[in-house]
Known about the structure:
Blueprint lengths: L6 E4 L24 H13 L4 E4 L11 H4 L4 H9 L6 E7 L5 H14 L4 E6 L6 H5 L7 H19 L27 E2 L4 E2 L14 E5 L3 H10 L2 E4 L5 H17 L8 E6 L2 E2 L3 H27 L16 H8 L3 H13 L4 H8 L7 E2 L1 H13 L5 E4 L6 H15 L12 H4 L8 H12 L4 H6 L1
Parallel strand pairs: 1-2, 1-12, 2-3, 3-4, 4-7, 7-8, 8-9, 9-12, 10-11
Antiparallel strand pairs: 5-6
Helix pairs in contact: 3-4, 4-6, 6-7, 7-8, 9-12, 13-14
Amino acid sequence: MKKGFMKLGLMPEGGGRTGTDWMNPGMPPYPGTNFQRHKEQALIAEEFKADFFFVADTLWADEVSPPHRLDRFEAMTLLAAIAAVTTHIGLVGTLSTTFCEPFNIARQVLSLDHISNGRAGWNLVTTDPKGSSDNYGRFHAISHEERYEIGAEAYRVVTGLWDSFEDDALPQDKEKGVFLIPEKLHALNHKGKYFESKGPINLHRSPQGRPIVFTATASDDGLAFAARYIDCVFTPGSYGIGVNQEFYRKLKVKAVAYGRDPDSVSILPGCTPLIAPTREAARAIQEARREQIGVEGAIKYLSGSFHGFDLRKYGLDEPFPLKAIESVAEGFKGNMMHMLRIAREEALTVRQFAMRFGFPKDQFVGTAEDIADEMQEWIETEACDGFMLVESQPGQLRLFADSVAPILRERGLLRREYAGTTLRENLGLPKPENLFVAAGRSRGERGGDGRAAAAAE
């Protein structure tokens, strides 16, 4: 049985998770770019001591994109504004290793980290090129495996740049006129297959050592990548507790194989609670939401999710077009392959596929007690280390804060106060040693050279 506090993040989804959530009477205009709404959500999350406020991002949109992707803030810009109105909650933003230069990623995230006094995190995404490549003019064709190869190199460059300054490199001794100790500032001198970056970055080291690194995955390639490099891993909660337990075991075992403490990587499935005074009332909300979406809405939502593959041109009762969709399956290997496997095994029609996968996969529906019970079961049976909360309907986050959080807190599953001032402290992760310092010590022990090269490995 797992013990201790669960880790909680909150992901604002603008116009909602579906194509029709924006029609809810409580949803404000332009919900994805309504700063007041984002601010209110962040403050509510900070109120019940959530670990972080997480901003997803995408690099393209078209006419079938769901509202939460069609109109949204750039992640780091929004988080810098949220930093100014919060004090403890972590701030995690999405930046792509496929289309963003590592030096820019390192500088943007570390800038946010200093603005927020050590609360920043980076959601590392190995973006599928379909759609996005048309906006950047590169990587028009790239395999799933190569995306992770690029991501791994970008990770090494970014984390190496974050350690450009040793912790005591800037004494700022006014009496002696010493601002910098030059030998404590390091150039990375990275020249790899995909990137070159000399460094150093022109920002001193983070109060938390290095910002926290996140990623989302459900594929085998992603699992191996996360086990080696990542601090927090997002997974789909919609597959159910059994699938998440299997993923949890695999990731923790693989992390150990890479020489890591299994507790140093946290697994956080999505959690979109629907809370009501009775179970019947909660299910009624769920059913009304499904009816509003309808099968046509579900197909449109899936078409937007499939990045350029429009299911609307197929008849509802035609066999699901497995062969035709394989052209886009590479980009979403984990989640997509799961859906396609079921479509193949059960010979689903387009209608059946839409009914199975085009509607919200609400796993947490019922009273506040029901939600708390289910979350506790997932934690105690090692299906996860915490959850990524998404507000399913306007007002649900407030309900969670007022009704579910107190139950979790009373059961010893949710903290009453933040553990520290940095995101790393609140997640219970140790401050990492500077890569250059560690490499220098190793060089001294070996009697060799190559400090910067070792730091970049």
